[in-house]
Write a structure and sequence with these properties.
Layout (H helix, E strand, L loop, with lengths): L1 H18 L14 H4 E7 L5 E7 L3 E4 L4 E4 L5 E2 L6 E5 L3 E6 L2 E7 L7 E9 L1 E3 L8 E9 L2 H9 L13 H11 L2 H15 L9 H11 L4 H28 L5 H4 L3 H18 L9 H10 L7 H18 L5 H13 L2 H15 L1 H13 L5 H22 L7 H22 L5 H22 L17 H5 L7 E3 L2 H10 L4 E6 L4 H11 L5 H4 L3 E6 L5 H9 L7 E5 L11 E2 L4 H11 L6
Parallel strand pairs: 12-14, 13-14
Antiparallel strand pairs: 1-2, 2-8, 3-7, 3-10, 4-9, 5-8, 6-7, 9-11, 13-15, 15-16
């Protein structure tokens, strides 16, 4: 374990050097001190509007995505941040930056006016010649008058007022973390992880932990120990992701890079092999000589070193490949971390969240031996159920790249195989009401999956949708009205320049299951579909996660699908409308109605 901690610390220190922090042994006379390169100030105009300003020295620039303002007891924000100049930066890739000068309006809630506010201005900039300064936090203080709120709409770079909408789940979580103390934030992260443990992010891991406990025949503390190793691997993986998000911002998405057909195919095949081992087709064993040596080395221990390492690595593998979810709460956490520029807080918060997510898995490991039968036919049934659970994981990975009715065929075959097993057990001398019930239910549900697939459906939760309806054919042919499917920010810029209607962007990937759920359950909803036809609805496909995809994610500070962006008819992005993570129908409906109320000129 000490070796793992040392490796984690070494990784962070290496990233620190790669990030470009200046060395104390370096003294380059051509580089200005940071306070001279970026001279910041706060002022108030005749209308009472508060402004923060930067005088940027020649040869230096500020990052748009690193601009932030915060206060301890006040909800303070920039009223508007204008687009910057696109630049390919050696530290962040394609970003928006500002040269020469920048002036931004700042506002607080109207009900708190007038008020003197102590706030912190955060920013980061670099020199063209290659030096990147650390993120800066500058304390400031000023009085906000009652006139400031009234003048915001006039002083925000001429931007038309936008109808307000309820903040998204991700923004809500990010706002809560911004106002909380460190300990309150960590406690909230643990609770958030516990809530996320009942989502598709974690539920696919239950069969893995169950198979580990059943396969090892561990009991009591032994099962808890193995599941704790698994959860530790999962939590440390989240900690590394949090640290990287704190260093590099929202642009880093390690999990997306692992969602390609080769890795998913190999992973699916691995789970199939593990399932076959649970079915007794073969026994997973190390070579005899190596196994004997390990057994001799660990004769006093219930768990060999190979098993300990295998379980730990399984937790890492499952976190990166099995569950690349971007739920709204998790999106809010990473959004906050990416703007805080604090890798240590990022690592600690996501580590604590990972521990919260692992609580049900710890219960599975600790209680497995008490819940599972000790011996007899039911123990054999439980082992087979674990095998079917591993097969379900293989299908879960495969359908990220398989679309259409083939999804229903796979789930149908799985259910029928499960039903056939229990039917065979029930008719061969082991008749029991539970076996008969499982057999009948799975055979019936599996058959409906095949019927739905033959009818052209592809939602396993609604395999018979539209069947028997007079207008089933027209309902099934209903398509989401995408104006275009693109892969880069340059293509989106072209569409924004040509469109005279509001533009709505849907971030999508073939491997993103939440994206497919959103398309079926939200975009095709009867009250949403007509509104999508009134805007320029663009799908950005980041399936390949190539250079163009990553540049798009960089520019709009997104770390993976699903996500939605909203632009008014003047091609100005409405940042308050952003949706990151799987959206609800109400959130999408509310934003579409609001963006359509925008003036067209």
């Amino acid at each position: 374990m000490r070796a793992l901690v040392a490796l984690f610390a070494l990784t962070l220190s290496t990233l620190s050097l790669a990030f470009g922090l200046s060395s104390p042994f370096s003294s380059e006379p051509e580089f200005l001190p940071v306070e001279q390169a970026f001279q910041s100030s706060v002022s108030q105009d005749d209308n009472g509007q508060v402004w923060v300003s930067w005088d940027i020295a020649d040869g230096y620039y500020l990052y748009r995505h690193q601009l932030k303002v915060s206060a301890v007891d006040t909800d303070i924000e920039f009223a508007h941040i204008p687009p910057g100049k696109t630049k390919h930066d050696q530290y962040f890739g394609d970003v928006e930056v500002y040269y020469d000068s920048l002036r931004l309006p700042v506002q607080i809630p109207a009900q708190e006016l007038p008020k003197v506010v102590d706030f912190t201005l955060q920013y980061q900039g670099c020199a063209e010649q290659g030096l990147c300064y650390p993120p800066q936090s500058v304390p400031m203080s000023t009085e906000f008058s009652t006139l400031a709120q009234d003048s915001t709409s006039q002083s925000s770079a001429g931007q038309a007022s936008t109808p307000t909408v309820n903040i998204s789940g991700a923004q809500n979580v990010s706002g809560i973390l911004a106002q909380a103390s460190v300990w309150q934030a960590l406690l909230a992260m643990f609770g958030l992880g516990l809530l996320l443990s009942f989502t598709p992010c974690v539920l696919p891991m239950v069969p893995i932990v169950s198979a580990i406990v059943v396969g090892s025949k561990s009991k009591g503390w032994g099962g808890f120990y193995l599941s704790a190793l698994y959860v530790l691997g999962m939590a440390l993986t989240y900690a590394v992701i949090g640290a990287l998000a704190g260093w590099f911002g929202a642009q880093l998405n390690l999990q997306a890079a692992l969602q390609n057909p080769i890795i998913l195919g190999v992973s699916s095949a691995l789970f199939v092999l593990l399932a076959l081992a649970m079915f007794g087709v073969f026994e997973l064993r190390l070579p005899a000589k190596l196994q004997t040596k390990l057994d001799q080395t660990a004769s006093q221990s219930q768990n060999t070193k190979s098993r300990v390492l295998g379980v730990f690595l399984a937790g890492i593998f499952a976190t990166l490949v099995v569950s690349p979810c971007v739920s709204a709460p998790l999106a809010g956490v990473v959004l906050y971390i990416s703007t805080s520029s604090d890798p240590m807080f990022g690592a600690a918060s996501l580590f604590v969240m990972g521990l919260g997510m692992g609580i049900p898995l710890l219960l599975v490991g600790a209680l497995g031996s008490k819940v599972l039968p000790k011996n007899g036919p039911w123990l054999e049934d439980m082992k087979k159920l674990m095998g079917f659970g591993l097969l379900a994981l293989a299908i879960w990975l495969a359908i990220r790249w398989i679309s259409g009715p083939y999804t229903l065929y796979l789930w149908g075959a799985w259910l029928i195989a499960l039903g056939a097993y229990f039917l065979h057990r029930a008719v061969t001398g082991l008749s029991h009401p539970v076996r008969w019930f499982i057999a009948v239910v799975t055979l019936v549900v599996g058959s409906t999956q095949f019927v739905g697939g033959l009818a052209g459906n592809y939602n396993p939760l609604k395999p018979l949708q539209g069947l028997g309806s007079n207008n089933s054919a027209s309902e099934h042919s209903e398509q989401v009205p995408y104006y275009a499917t693109i892969t880069s920010s340059q293509e989106l810029d072209s569409i924004l320049a040509q469109s005279n209607r509001p533009v709505v962007v849907d971030l999508y990937a073939d491997w993103c299951i939440s994206c497919k759920v959103t398309e079926e359950e939200v975009f095709k909803a009867p009250d949403v579909l007509p509104l999508l036809e009134q805007v320029t609805f663009v799908q950005v496909d980041v399936t390949n996660n190539d250079e163009a995809n990553q540049a798009f994610l960089n520019q709009y500070q997104l770390f993976g699908p699903p996500a939605m962006l909203f632009f008014d008819a003047q091609a100005e992005q409405i940042h308050d409308y952003n949706l990151v993570g799987e959206p609800t129908k109400q959130e999408v409906l509310e934003r579409l109605q609001a963006v359509l109320k925008q003036p067209n000129q």
